[in-house]
Automatic annotation (TrEMBL):
<dbReference type="InterPro" id="IPR006656">
    <property type="entry name" value="Mopterin_OxRdtase"/>
</dbReference>
<comment type="similarity">
    <text>Belongs to the prokaryotic molybdopterin-containing oxidoreductase family.</text>
</comment>
<dbReference type="InterPro" id="IPR006657">
    <property type="entry name" value="MoPterin_dinucl-bd_dom"/>
</dbReference>
<dbReference type="InterPro" id="IPR041954">
    <property type="entry name" value="CT_DMSOR/BSOR/TMAOR"/>
</dbReference>
<keyword id="KW-0732">Signal</keyword>
<keyword id="KW-0479">Metal-binding</keyword>
<dbReference type="GO" id="GO:0030288">
    <property type="term" value="C:outer membrane-bounded periplasmic space"/>
</dbReference>
<dbReference type="GO" id="GO:0030151">
    <property type="term" value="F:molybdenum ion binding"/>
</dbReference>
<dbReference type="GO" id="GO:0043546">
    <property type="term" value="F:molybdopterin cofactor binding"/>
</dbReference>
<keyword id="KW-0500">Molybdenum</keyword>
<dbReference type="InterPro" id="IPR050612">
    <property type="entry name" value="Prok_Mopterin_Oxidored"/>
</dbReference>
<protein>
    <recommendedName>
        <fullName>trimethylamine-N-oxide reductase</fullName>
        <ecNumber>1.7.2.3</ecNumber>
    </recommendedName>
</protein>
<feature type="binding site">
    <location>
        <position position="528"/>
    </location>
    <ligand>
        <name>Mo-bis(molybdopterin guanine dinucleotide)</name>
    </ligand>
</feature>
<feature type="domain" description="Molybdopterin dinucleotide-binding">
    <location>
        <begin position="686"/>
        <end position="806"/>
    </location>
</feature>
<keyword id="KW-0574">Periplasm</keyword>
<feature type="binding site">
    <location>
        <position position="786"/>
    </location>
    <ligand>
        <name>Mo-bis(molybdopterin guanine dinucleotide)</name>
    </ligand>
</feature>
<keyword id="KW-0560">Oxidoreductase</keyword>
Amino acid sequence: MLQNLKEKKMSETHSLSRRRFLSATSSLTALAAADMMLPGVVGRAFAAEAPKEILTGSHWGAFYAKVDNGRFTSLRPWEKDFHPNAALDGVQDVVYSSSRIRYPMVRRAYLEKGIKADRDSRGDGDFVRVSWDKALDLVAGELKRLEEQEGPWAVYAGSYGWRSSGEIGNPQIMLTRLMNLNGGAVYSSSNYSKAALEGIMPYVVGSIDAAGPQTTYQSVIENTKTIVFWGADPFKTNQIAFALPDHEEYKWFEDMKKAGIKAIFINPINVEASKYLNAEWLAIRPHSDVALAIAICHVLLTEKLYDKEFIANCTFGFDKFSDYLLGKGWDKVEKTPEWAAALTEIPADVIRRLAHQFVENRTMLVSGWSCQRQHHGEQWPWAFVTLASMIGQVGLPGGGFCQNYHLYSLGSPATMAPALAPGMSGGTRKANKPWPKEKGAQSIPVARVVDMLEKPGQTYEHNGEKKIYPDVKLTYWVGGNPFHHHQDRNRMRKAWRKFETVIVQDFQWTASARFADIVLPATTTTERDDIEMVGANSKRAYIAMKKVVEPLFESKSDYAIFTALAERLGLGQEFTEGKSELDMVRDVYAAAKKTADAKKTVTLPAFEEFWEKGIIEFETPAKNQRWVKYADFREDPIENMLPTGTGKIELYSKPIEKMGYDDCPPHASWLEPLEWLGQKDKAYPLHMNSNHPLHRMHSQLNGTRVRKIYEVADREPCMINTKDAAARGIKNGDVVRVFNGRGQCLAGAVVSDDIRPSVVQLQEGAWYDPVDIKDANTLCKHGDVNVLTPDIGSSRLAQATSAHTCLVDVEKYTGPLPKVTVFDAPANA
Ligand SMILES: Nc1nc2c(c(=O)[nH]1)N[C@H]1C(S)=C(S)[C@@H](COP(=O)(O)OP(=O)(O)OC[C@H]3O[C@@H](n4cnc5c(=O)[nH]c(N)nc54)[C@H](O)[C@@H]3O)O[C@H]1N2
Ligand SMILES: Nc1nc2c(c(=O)[nH]1)N[C@H]1C(S)=C(S)[C@@H](COP(=O)(O)OP(=O)(O)OC[C@H]3O[C@@H](n4cnc5c(=O)[nH]c(N)nc54)[C@H](O)[C@@H]3O)O[C@H]1N2
Ligand SMILES: [Mo]
């Protein structure tokens, strides 16, 4: 099957034939070789040495790096990774890529005029190479000046992003630590991934729920009869992880198939996992999932199929929710299957059948996170848990719900090894001066960054509180790419001008780096020492992520950069506590060893032995194989109450009622999103599904040979249904223009019946490549979907991103084709 999977991966979604793939790979090899010949691209240690292999790891998996004469020449996956990621080769490419940031660079206008520089020309690529001393003096000087003359509220250090794997190389913790030592800064809360879920779940089940161990795969294989993947693409999203992925879910799928478990995929796209399991594909209209879940609840209620005992013992507020289902709630609409059929385009008889199927046998409901990365995204996780509660199998083997089988393989049983903890703490703010309330919040919801820039001093609401946006002047971004991840690029470009100074620390010339004033060249993971686990939950092994090659050009590790800055701010000793990176690796290991020795769970050798060997693997005890989430709670809901107000699953929330938000009512509710296909006077006819990229992790590896596997006409692929394409005269491989009132981009058409009509897909993360930065509605030549998406909070409760809430149109592009240039470094770089 694994071979199958690999084959599929190569030929899937973008209908890439095997032959085309093979010719693509051979040109890739040529491409990689050409990259290696870039002038000046040489490793430093050039002493003649026999080639060797070093085991290390990345978001894409553990691998052996081959090193020959100081050069990282090739890689092969770790032999225990039974489903290696096809994108892994890109990890080698980024080290030597043409978009590598080689030297510290400063925007010419900023170098000449400092904070008085014209900000409209940011992004024009006119950079000047400077010495490290000059760059660090500029950064430290501004941080010091702002702290002394303004205050910590003038610096935005909410830097968000997926950086690289490794417990030491966490540049966001380093930034926080440095800023806290310097007197503080404005930070950010939650994330782009699941902020709506993280906002609502504490009220419903008393925790985030989508983190930590989940009912094990074994429990599902042995007990589940029907499994529903709702807005989830587990084959795709499990390919990567924050720690090193163990890729164990793929074996799980094999076993599910063997066990004959019935699978249903509710998704506008027919994804690979669905085909693999011969699943029923329900091609739902995007953003109508809450209506579908609620209508299934209506059937369970009116046909008296729901689990009365579970509802009585384990939930709170069912009466209010029932009233809502029956048309006696706040909107006075009865939530019949016919009502939902009109919204979802899933026939009423199918909705009734789903209700029956779910209660007749053991059912596991599995949700991804796309349905909450939407306007009113809080409603989805709540409706989902409400439905699972009415089915009543929560806490039973193979039953209930899971909001994270699609990432980190959280259903893999855990070994007894302690989890590794980060090598450094961000600490707390050294309060050089008080932080008056009127100076604004010390932390903003992460996706409200542009709102903050547009409305300094203004009030916003978040999770029952009223807060003030601070007046920030500088931002320092490290380990993230906001010019890919944030929504509504044109609005963002304008708002970004509010910053007097933008500092970006990365190893590649992303759009974020191009739109910065000061650019600091960091190393990739393979140019420094670190340590990481395989499997965030399974903890299958610890891997010594030993440095593979010396830092290229003038790059420095994040730790070296922050240490140098700390020294300039007179905070060197406090920042490092005298430790090198390898000392911190040792400390991380020592802490794990101390726990393991005290609890006598696993035997860990001395650090030197581990480091020399490069890996320790752990066994999974049989008792961990069949763990069931919420089993204790179900068994005794009084003794093992949930940490909610009532100790039960809250189907109605009094704390949320008190907030009085019309955009987040006190029980799961269907609320029409800002933009969707069911809208009466919709401005554009197609729903843009900007889900996560199959062959990348966000924008990472975009500038590598991996691009050649999936790009169409040198651009990001845009999947479109056969009928929609035909109606527009679009053929497979055509360049198309995707547009709406917010922006426009080019993309390469992939015509397919694996996407339902009226929905198009442009995966997030293509590097932003504007034609003309002076144009407020400039065309992105390459296919950054966030030129199209709206920048609105999910609701006042979570203020999460609503990235998926987006209507567009597509047309065949017939104008002169602009060359994609974003992967070449700026002229002087
Ligand atoms: N439309 C739309 N937009 C979305 C989403 C969506 O579904 N639709 N999803 C959202 C989600 S869930 C997320 S998590 C975000 C992801 O957004 P990001 O996390 O910002 O995306 P990445 O491409 O992972 O960016 C990481 C950056 O860190 C750099 N980097 C890697 N390692 C290091 C290191 O060791 N040191 C330094 N200094 N830099 C390093 C990389 O080169 C890269 O530029 O995107 C969000 N945006
Ligand atoms: N390969 C790869 N894996 C990744 C990432 C990556 O960039 N690349 N990113 C990681 C990160 S940071 C995160 S947060 C997770 C994200 O995990 P998710 O949010 O679960 O992933 P998405 O791909 O955005 O969406 C999952 C599925 O939902 C479907 N979908 C979209 N809109 C709707 C809708 O309205 N209704 C329904 N029913 N389905 C819908 C999409 O077609 C897609 O197949 O993935 C992680 N894993
Ligand atoms: Mo994410």
